[in-house]
Amino acid sequence: MEESVLATVEFLGLVGYEVLIAYAMKAFWPMNQKKKIIYLFWALLPLALMTMFHSESIGNDTQAYTELFDAVCNMTLKQALSNGRFEKGYMLFTYVLTRLFSSRQCVLIAEGAIVYLSLARWLNKWCKAPGLFVCLIVEMLEIDGWMSIQRQALAMAILFFAYDVLIEKKLLRFVVLVILAAQFHAVAYVFLLTWPMLWWFEEHRVNSLKKKWKFERLMAVCAVGIVLLMWPMINFLLRIFPKYQYYVAGAYMDGQARLAIVLKIIVYALMLMVPRWIKNQKWEAGQSVVELSLYRMALVNIVILIAANQATILTRFSGIFSVYAVAEFSEQASKLKRGKNRKIVTVAALILFALYGVIITIYRTPEWQTTYPFEWYF
């Protein structure tokens, strides 16, 4: 009981800090470039420090990565790259660190620095009002996942650069960056779908503002198909990527995590619909490429979570898109007219998502949700 109380206090304390910083620096609505950089420094600094200097008891996979560092210390480069469990890019990353540093904490320090520098750059470039986004990645425990799944977090950091060239419609660079990200975690390959998802489906009819619904219909068909064909698909993927066989019997396939997934489906669906409902507009005729990309990634994220409700390991795929879904909601909320609507949506989101985080933190569902009470490595 005392542990749950302490965990809740720590979690809400961090949330309170982020809300206070965002409010004080007016980051809940569009910011100029100079103020945005200052805000991102103070908002992301504690999150980066937590990721870099957390104890090995934080996160389900942390100890596996630090122990891998010790093992690689005694390997040649050829031996490290021949490891069958981890991707070659991550093994090379670890090998280089073993030659530069003696402490295995350097794995977490390097990962945290890379992830948050990449995130800060991406937010500075693409997010006009980053305040709500940063608060939500804390409340929705996105940052907690980055402390546990280091390989995927590093892949995500590279995919932020892939997003740039996706928007700029530079196919070759996009493919190269996605392949590079996949050398840290193979789940990054799913990001290749964002190219056809964004560029192969027209949003409106020719010479008309009337919206086409092809993409939405495709997502509905995919959701039904995935639910019906889930396990055959998983078995097929495991034949392609046999290194992930060990997940099948582990916590990542445990049904205890389904409460968190059901909550996520509800939350992300509301995030997608509520701002548009409040604006009393179905779809914007003047959507930018960035807005369209975030909207479609948010839809894909929901479809993946529906699939993950049957096999929770698939939340790894959702992790690739969830950060963009949060950004989509944050940007839509910031576009609401100043006044009651924006204030109500912002306050309601902060309260409801804080409650969501408290539920997950207290009940520790999924079971690898062990960030709070927080422990530093020193």
From TrEMBL:
Keyword flag Membrane: yes
TM spans (from-to): 6-25, 37-55, 149-167, 174-198, 218-238, 259-278, 298-324, 344-363
Protein's UniProt name: EpsG family protein
Lineage: Bacteria, Bacillati, Bacillota, Clostridia, Eubacteriales
Source species: Faecalibacterium prausnitzii
Keywords tagged on the record: Membrane, Transmembrane, Transmembrane helix
Keyword Protease: no
